[in-house]
Amino acid sequence: TLGFILPTHSWAQEGTEPQTKTAEDLPLEDLRMFAEVYGRIKSAYVEPIDDRKLLEDAIRGMVAGLDPHSSYLAPDDYAALQEHTTGQFGGLGIEVGMKDGLIHVIAPIDDTPAQKAGIQSGDLISRIDDTPVQGMSLSEAIDLLRGSIGSKIKLRVLRQGADAPLEFELTRAAIKVTSVKSRLLADGYGYVRISQFQLNTGEDLATAIEKLSKEHPLEGLVLDLRDNPGGVLQAAVEVANAFVDQGLIVYTEGRIDRSALKFAAKSEMLLDKRVPVIVLINGGSASASEIVAGALQDQDRAVIMGTQSFGKGSVQTILPLAGNRAVKITTARYFTPNGRSIQAQGITPDIQIENRALGAVGETGEMVREADLNRHLENATQNQQAGSKADVGDDFQLYQAYSLLKALNILTAKTTP
């Protein structure tokens, strides 16, 4: 979720709320119909219904009808959202939305039960235990996904390309998300993975870059935002600011004054501009991830590599209510420095690369080299050659990003007097 949390005082106190409508402006006929339906349910429904439940359900339905990212937050939901932004909560570890009446997996979170079980971005959850998802609201489905730590849950998943539904059994856990992970791919070449944008992500990124640069100055960096569903807007601004020291990062536009905001870079940059940066994105990169990728792309600070991002270009504002409740509603769209709206479009990579495993040489049609042949003669100077094999595992996109960083440094060295 990308957004702000506003204090409990009203917009009217800030002078930003639209003028209160007069009685003549209110949709009286529609209000009469609401009252009539309310009365009919109270008098004719097969079982007695509590007034508070009826009204709360009405509010929930009103907000849910706005767009897929707006929702009414009951006390438990509001508390869970606050835990989510600080990096610790209970559940399976998936960012979800609604699509075609099913639960759409935007992205699994690193090192969680969902990610370890093999849940993927783009999966559609059709059944939770024995309960079909079709017809549920998103909040109802999330309630079923949650449960006590250690309890088991079964999911039926529809996946593009799969011949039949997939069945998963997961064990709920306390989700403690490590926002930033880092390592060296090779001497001078760093890798930073941001799995989610939390309140402390900017500070964690600074620590990671300092750690990577400790023994050897960085000559290149891969910033991995794949399957990052977003998070806190301010954290995205801080991350982008780590790589640029001036210019616009993102701006938002909405109907109310406080939704029209601009965020510009400050001078405190973490990484020298001469160090090339590759940003990896995919269909699970959403919201705050797209802000960072879009800003660095528009400012010509990084090469964006991977596949088209998710396309969530809207800002949600948390409006606290009485009784530990809140509404989360979409209040603005965000735009990249060059004025591009990401909503329903996403970020298009500079270099489009689908992910696949790095197979054995020759298995996927790649050219077989002398060094790949059995019993080949060793190079007499092999042990004298500088450098080491990059730590990319079987990640094809990461391998391509590392190769491009090396190429950019070679080109720079050749063209610099």
Properties at a glance:
417 residues, globular, alpha+beta, 9 helices, six-stranded mixed beta sheet
Overall description:
- The chain is an alpha+beta fold and 417 residues long.
- 26% of the residues lie in helices and 25% in strands.
- The chain contains 9 helices and 20 strands.
- The strands form 4 sheets. Strands 1, 2, 14, 15, 18 and 19 form a 6-stranded mixed beta sheet that branches. Strands 4, 5, 6, 7, 8 and 9 form a 6-stranded antiparallel beta sheet that branches. Strands 11-12-13-16-17-20 form a 6-stranded mixed beta sheet, with helices on both faces.
- Strand 18 and strand 19 (325-335) form a beta hairpin.
- The two termini are 47 Å apart.
- The model is unreliable at 1-19, 360-377 and 379-387 (pLDDT under 50).
Determine Rg (CA atoms, Å): 25 Å
**Overall shape:** globular
Largest sheet: 6 strands, mixed
Order of helices and strands: EHHEHEEEHEEHEEEEEHEHEEEHEEEEH
Poorly predicted runs? 1-19, 360-377, 379-387
Q: Could you give the count of β-strands?
A: 20
Summarize this entry quickly.
With 417 residues, the chain is α+β, with helices and mostly antiparallel strands.
Furnish the topology, listing elements before pairings.
Layout: E1 3-5, H1 28-44, H2 51-64, E2 71-73, H3 75-86, E3 88-91, E4 94-99, E5 102-108, H4 113-117, E6 124-128, E7 131-132, H5 138-145, E8 152-158, E9 166-171, E10 173-176, E11 180-186, E12 189-194, H6 201-212, E13 220-224, H7 233-241, E14 248-254, E15 261-264, E16 277-281, H8 288-298, E17 303-306, E18 314-321, E19 325-335, E20 351-352, H9 396-415
Parallel strand pairs: 1-18, 12-13, 13-16, 16-17, 17-20
Antiparallel strand pairs: 2-19, 3-10, 4-5, 5-6, 6-7, 6-8, 8-9, 11-12, 14-15, 14-19, 18-19
Helix pairs in contact: 6-7, 7-8
